[in-house]
Amino acid sequence: MSKNRRKPLYHFTCSHGAEGLGRSGFLNPTPHPLLGSSLSWMTSLPDPARDAVGLTSTILDCDRMETRWKVTDQTRCRRWVDIRHEFNSDAVEILEAFSDPSSWWVASVPVPVRLARDTR
Prior knowledge:
The structure is a single chain. 22% of the residues lie in helices and 28% in strands. By secondary structure, the chain is of the alpha+beta class. A four-stranded antiparallel β-sheet has the order 1-5-8-2, covered by helices on one side. The protein is globular.
C-alpha cells in the first residue's frame, strides 16, 4: 500500500488517549478483547457517525471521538474487510453487528499520526 493514498485515514480518541498520541506521535496496537490480537483501528471517514465506527461510549465514560488524528504513513495499514477472515467468525459478527466495517482500517504495528482536530 502506498504512503500517498488518496483517502486519508483517521483515528478518534478521548483526551486520555490523545495525551499518549501527542507524546509519542504513534498509534500503538492494543489488545482487542474479542479478537485476541493487538490492533490499531482507523477509519477512512473524516466525520463518521459514532455507530459507524463503533465509538458509542456505551461502556466507557469518556468521549471517544473528542480528538481526531490523521495517519501520516499508511504503508502498514490494512482494510478490515480484507483481513476479517483471519479472525474467529463469531467475534467478527459481534464486532460488526451495529457498525459499518467498510470504512475500517487496522494495523498490527505502530502507525505515525498527527492531531487533525481537537473538539475541546
